[in-house]
Task: structure prediction
Amino acid sequence: MLEEGSYLTSEAVDDKRVYTITESGRQLLNERQRPATESMRGQPSAELMDLRKAVTELNDAIAIVARSGTSEQTLQLRDLLIQLKREIYRILSE
Result:
């Protein structure tokens, strides 16, 4: 997605994919940089604390499925997480 938006390029080097940020990618980063991780007093922002809580709760639910879910539930969860990851990257590319 970021490559399609011309925010980065990629090439194969020694059987590995190497990504390089483009000038438009740098501009996007500069536009989006903001102190979301910390407030003026150096404390985590409420936004970041809410995100951390949501990730922790999601991790707990994933662990339950991993420990006691059926094979079908595990596969469904894996597919859902793949979709979620794609959606997160889509949001970042906007």
In short: The first strand starts at residue 8 and ends at 13. The mean pLDDT is 86. The chain has two domains: 1-33, 37-94. The helical segments are 23-32, 46-68, 71-93.
